UniProtKB/TrEMBL annotation:
MF terms in GO: glucuronosyl-N-acetylgalactosaminyl-proteoglycan 4-beta-N-acetylgalactosaminyltransferase activity; N-acetylgalactosaminyl-proteoglycan 3-beta-glucuronosyltransferase activity
UniProt membrane topology term: Single-pass type II membrane protein
One cellular-component annotation, GO: Golgi cisterna membrane
Skewed-composition ranges (Low complexity): 47-65
Gene3D superfamilies reported in the protein's UniProt record: 3.90.550.50
Keyword line: Glycoprotein, Golgi apparatus, Membrane, Signal-anchor, Transferase, Transmembrane, Transmembrane helix
Species of the source: Nycticryphes semicollaris
Xref: InterPro entries: Chond_GalNAc, CS_glycosyltransferase
Subcellular location: Golgi apparatus, Golgi stack membrane
Protein known as: Hexosyltransferase
Gene from which this protein is expressed: Chpf2
Extent of the signal sequence: none
């Protein structure tokens, strides 16, 4: 019958259309909604909906509103993006726009907290030192203010002396100094005395929860003696917090307060000044944040104090001596540490409870709980190797040797890890068992960039039971030293306006490359008017020096320098002639150092260096006087004959992995200040005495590494590119320097793949 056949055909058709049915329904629904929306936007016209309330003259249809208070229209066109065309008056000379180095400065951001400590000549070397050792490293900026200073200022303390010990005068001068030097840089100002112990981390956390838009005068509120019952001042012994807005409003009235307000206490004088001229009183609670304090009684034992008020205190006063300050710091540090451990345990418990609800289940729980999972390599080249060690030796040495003595930071690291392993074992199994170490059988460690340093220890332990029975057993433990919170290290501020003095040593073997160096120097520094100068150092062999009156091997270079000085009338390129068989880098730098001021920023270059403005700016920024020296790792291009093998090289080669490598064996380029070099060189001279032959085995890098306490910044520098050239290695230098030069030449030939291809082609050519 036709009925069943039609039903079967319909069912087969629906089965065929079922995969595309959601697509058809989605398109139909989308088209319907689009048409419905278009009818709504076009059907409003000029009429308002009945009962609709709106501003006079506002249009409620689909057309754009043109004018209304509170509505976007012509009166609010500032909120619409506009393209401002660039126009420069041709009649005015072009002036380079100078912008700040950091976006924080340009946007007007402020630092968070400034701390001022009021001290005196009598307590500067006692209580003030105790404050500096306990809390100074927690605050971003801390200064000490005193009336008269002692003959010797304690190390590591920035002291401001006002010249008068009167308390009111000290407070007045301190507030004036803070406003003048830091009023535009910080949002909050915390003022405390040297007999106050403050919990630095708690103070920092407090200011993060307060709004900077209000005038804040926060501390321990005290009543004035015989004054208004509602007015309060902040007790100076417990410290107090002042906002930047309050400081700016208070500064114009400081002189009037000094002349009109009489008081014995400086904190009461400041509180009266703020109340009389600004009408702001001290509060102990603001925006839901409490400023908890605790007053110490005589002969108080901090370790025995169990009051909740003491445990929650942000500031404790009075602290009578240094020992009490250190005991308070130890006690509150232990409290904070216990709270941190408890928070970690709570978070780990929450992670365990939530892991069972995840798709991976409990199998997705990592160890330790809350730490990132170990790095999973995607290929054999990404596998992180383990370093083997014992208690005496390390079998993966920095210099490449197979075995070296475990010392310094590595030895301290291993000792701490073993102690931590024993502590964890005893805490888990006591009182049933007590473990003591017999020997470290095997030790392995590796650095995982996703989580930290991982350790695996095979320990030979002696386990003692409660009854005194002992047993020796071997146990394997795994530990992780996780990466902590990333911190920004404060560095001295440097600018790009510093003049760079380039120093270029030249030998006879370098003559073929001098022309290219001078051309790049002229194009990238002289043409751009960069603040950089050049000094040439001509190194004559004794034989060439004897014939310099007849044949000067550097005559061509001197002629090129003369041409540059004619082309750039304001530029002078001096040169220094030196006669030596062994061109020691340190001896050459000694000669140059004596001919320049101590504040000179040197860039020790090589003849293959291509100078550019980008690198010079990095040289300025990465070199900090009395703090840091910069040794860039230049990019060395490979031999084009091996890399391209007759093919045409790309005009703008950016494939570093194919065209070159960073030459870590070369220390020829360096940026440092003359004062830092002279300081390190003085220490070196005292160490070697009259054995000048030792200088032939050293480079400038070795001088800074062994004889200065500066930071040595060694980093790859993509802006410092050198063309391929076979360097001449002087065999008269030390064995290490000669070996390093040979390695640099060999690794600079080509990559392994290029060398393998060259050998393969050579074998094929020989076989045919």
């Amino acid at each position: 019958p036709a009925g069943p056949a039609a039903t079967m055909r319909l069912a087969s058709m629906l089965a065929a259309l079922r995969p595309i049915l959601p697509l058809v329904l989605g398109l139909s629904l989308g088209c319907s909604l689009s048409l419905l929306r278009a009818s709504w936007s076009q059907g409003g016209g000029e009429e308002q909906c009945p009962g609709a309330a709106g501003p006079p003259g506002a249009r409620t249809g689909g057309a754009r509103p043109e004018a209304a208070d509170g509505w976007p229209g012509r009166g609010h066109e500032d909120f619409r993006p506009r393209i401002v065309p660039y126009y420069r008056d041709p009649n005015k000379p072009y002036k380079k726009v100078l912008r700040t180095r950091y976006i924080q400065t340009e946007l007007g951001f402020h630092e968070r907290l400034f701390v001022a400590v009021l001290t005196s000549k009598a307590t500067l070397n006692t209580l003030a030192v105790a404050v500096n050792k306990t809390v100074a490293h927690h605050f971003p900026r801390l200064l000490y203010f005193t009336g008269l200073r002692s003959a010797k200022v304690p190390h590591g303390m920035v002291l401001v002396a006002h010249g008068d010990e009167r308390p009111i005068w000290l407070m007045y001068e301190t507030m004036h100094y803070i406003h003048q030097h830091f009023g535009s840089d910080y949002d909050w100002f915390y003022i405390m005395q040297d007999d106050t112990y403050a919990q630095a981390e708690q103070i920092k956390a407090l200011v993060t929860h307060l709004s900077i838009n209000q005038d804040v005068y926060l501390g321990r509120a005290e009543e004035f003696i015989g004054g208004d019952e509602q007015a309060r001042y902040c007790h100076g012994g417990f410290g107090y917090l002042i906002s930047r807005s309050l400081l700016l409003k208070l500064h114009p009235h400081l002189d009037s307060c000094r002349n009109e307000i009489l008081s014995v206490r400086p904190d009461e004088w400041l509180g009266r000044c703020i109340i009389d001229f600004l009408g702001i009183t001290c509060v102990s609670q603001l925006q839901g944040q409490h400023y908890h304090t605790y007053e110490l009684a005589k002969n108080t034992e901090p370790e025995k104090e169990e009051e909740e008020e003491f445990q929650a205190a942000l500031a404790v006063h009075p602290v009578s001596d240094m020992t009490l300050m250190y005991r308070l710091h130890k006690h509150f540090s232990r409290i904070q540490l216990d709270r941190t451990y408890q928070e970690i345990q709570d978070l780990q418990m929450q992670i365990r409870n939530l892991t069972s609800l995840t798709p991976a289940g409990e199998g997705g729980l990592t160890w330790p709980v809350g730490i990132n999972a170990p790095f999973l390599p995607k290929s054999r080249f990404e596998v992180i190797s383990w370093d083997y060690f014992t208690e005496q030796h390390l079998f993966s040495c920095p210099d490449g040797s197979p075995k070296c003595e475990l010392s310094g930071a590595s030895k301290a690291d291993v000792s701490e890890i073993i102690e931590s392993a024993l502590e964890q074992l005893n805490s888990r199994y006591q009182p049933l068992l007590r473990f003591s170490k017999r020997q470290l059988l095997n030790g392995y460690r590796r650095f995982d960039p996703t989580r930290g340093m991982e350790y695996t220890l095979d320990l030979l332990l002696e386990a003692v039971t409660q009854k005194g029975h002992s047993h020796v057993l071997a146990k394997r433990v795994s530990l992780v030293r996780p990466l902590s919170k990333v911190e920004i290290i404060p560095m001295p501020y440097v600018t790009e306006a510093t003049r760079v003095q380039l120093v270029l040593p030249l030998t006879v073997q370098d003559l073929d490359f001098v022309a290219n160096f001078l051309d790049m120097f002229a194009m990238n520094t002289l043409d751009t008017h960069d603040n950089a100068l050049l000094t040439l150092l001509f190194i004559y062999h004794p034989y060439d020096a004897q014939r310099v009156s007849q044949v000067d091997v550097f005559a061509g270079v001197k002629a090129m320098v003369g041409e540059l000085e004619k082309r750039y009338a304001e530029v002078k390129i001096p040169w220094i002639s030196v006669k030596t068989e062994v061109p020691s880098q340190v001896k050459l730098m000694d000669i140059v150092s004596k001919k320049h001021p101590v504040d000179t920023l040197f860039f020790l270059a090589s003849v293959w260096t291509e100078i550019n403005m980008e690198f010079l700016n990095r040289c300025r920024m990465n070199t900090i006087s009395n703090w840091q020296v910069f040794f860039p790792v230049h990019f060395q291009e490979f031999n084009p004959a091996l890399v391209y093998r007759g093919e045409q090289a790309a005009s703008s080669s950016t494939d570093f992995l194919r065209d070159g490598h960073f030459d870590r064996h070369s220390f020829a380029e360096a940026c440092f200040y003359n004062s830092d070099y002279m300081t390190a060189r003085t220490k070196l001279a005292a160490d070697i005495l009259d054995r000048d032959e030792l200088l032939e085995s050293m480079e400038v890098f070795d001088v800074f590494l062994h004889y200065s306490g500066l930071h040595l910044f060694r980093a790859v520098e993509p802006g410092l590119v050198q063309k391929y050239a076979l360097r001449s290695c002087n065999p008269r230098l030390s064995e290490e320097l000669y070996h390093r030069c040979v390695l640099s030449n060999l690794e600079g030939l080509a990559s392994r793949s290029h060398l393998a291809m060259a050998l393969f082609e050579q074998e094929q050519a020989n076989s045919t």
